[in-house]
Design brief:
6-stranded parallel β-sheet, 7-stranded mixed β-sheet, 323 residues, binds NADP nicotinamide-adenine-dinucleotide phosphate
Length: 323
């Protein structure tokens, strides 16, 4: 079958580690299901994997991709939940110490077929296209959990989203606006600020700009480049929810004094549960919210797609399709 995979890892030039070519068809273990992939979407995770972050050499070659929407052997149209937890683990599967994401230990979704535990299949509603459904399991699920499980925000509260153009960030804007939050964004680019306003943001600012007032919560995925601004922007007792650090994990100032003196809450967040994925899908159906898609390319062009993501030349999600 055709697949886009990490043949090796390359910390400085991740695209040199990518191959697009034939891989063996997967075996289907008991209790697992084969999904014929109709659409998949890119995440920064795929670039981290090519750089070797979280992908040890002994697991290579590894098919990339966390997200998929497709059809099972018995004809069900499904969205794949990408968090693979231990079958014996009970509770919130994102807290399972043995959990992994597709493409970390098990082969990923940039392929004709992917196999996953049956419990990771969620019905795809007809209202969502294949391309839209393929955006939900990672970036959109992460945004859903940040906003609705972790932040403590209530309708009417003000939330700041850093880095408006990203896949998670566009999801945060769309979901937050639909939920009745006052959504403020920052971006380095005026066109991305304007697009965020179209998606429902109330105000858009240049990265690092002083805000007219402090906010109840900040959604942080950019990391070192925006961390100090995130903490400066919070009201006393406010919450920063962090799920990523694209610009680096070590800010020059960690702002410990500010955190304790203003009693700020710093909450880490990763992916979401299968139940949250089902709730996210219902939310999209009920509110008519749809993922923001930057571009759609065939799987054969995975390298071009990843180059675009690496360049940061993206607004929303990049989708790869198969017929
Ligand atoms: N924990 C989890 O479960 C989870 C899930 C999904 C993603 N993540 C992580 O979250 C991060 C974002 O993921 P994504 O898929 O949304 O990535 P993405 O689409 O590539 O988002 C990148 C965005 O970050 C902003 N940005 C990047 N570098 C910046 C800098 N130096 N200064 C200011 N802004 C900068 C940009 O915003 P502007 O161009 O608008 O300024 C850009 O649009 C990644 O690090 C990813 O690994 C984690």
């Amino acid at each position: 079958m055709l697949a886009a995979y990490a043949a090796r890892t390359a910390s400085d030039d991740p695209l040199t580690a990518l191959e697009v070519g034939e891989r063996p068809e997967p075996e289907v273990p008991d209790g697992w299901a084969r999904v014929r992939v109709r659409a998949t979407s890119l995440n920064h995770h795929d670039l981290w994997s090519l750089r070797g972050v979280g992908l040890p050499a002994e697991l290579l070659p590894m098919i990339l991709g966390c997200d998929a929407a497709g059809v099972t052997d018995d004809g069900q149209e499904v969205v794949v939940h990408a968090v693979i937890s231990d079958p014996d683990f009970r509770g919130d599967e994102t807290t399972d110490p043995k959990r992994s994401l597709l493409s970390e230990r098990y082969q990923g979704t940039f392929a004709d077929e992917v196999v996953v535990p049956r419990r990771n299949l969620v019905p795809k509603p007809a209202a969502l296209s294949w391309e839209e459904a393929a955006c939900l399991p990672t970036a959109w699920l992460t945004a859903y959990r940040m906003l609705f499980t972790q932040s403590g925000l209530r309708p009417g509260d003000t939330v700041l989203v850093q880095g408006a153009g990203g896949g998670v960030a566009t999801a945060l804007v769309s979901l937050g606006a639909a939920a009745g939050f006052r959504v403020w964004v920052t971006s380095r680019h005026e066109d991305k600020q304007a697009r965020a306003l179209e998606l429902g943001a109330d105000r858009a600012f240049a990265s690092g700009a002083r805000l007219p007032e402090r906010v109840d919560a900040v959604m942080e995925t950019v990391g070192a480049a925006t961390w100090a601004h995130s903490l400066r922007s919070l009201r006393p007792g406010g919450t920063v929810v962090i799920s990523g650090a694209t610009s680096g994990p070590n800010p020059s100032a960690t702002e410990l004094n500010r955190i304790f003196f203003l009693q700020l809450r710093v909450i880490g967040s990763t992916m979401g549960t299968r139940d949250e994925l089902e709730a996210l899908i219902r939310f999209c159906e009920l509110k008519g919210v749809r993922p923001v898609i930057d571009s759609v390319l065939p799987l054969e062009q995975a390298k071009d797609a990843l180059a675009k993501l690496e360049a940061g030349d993206v607004l929303g999600k990049i989708v790869l399709t198969r017929q």
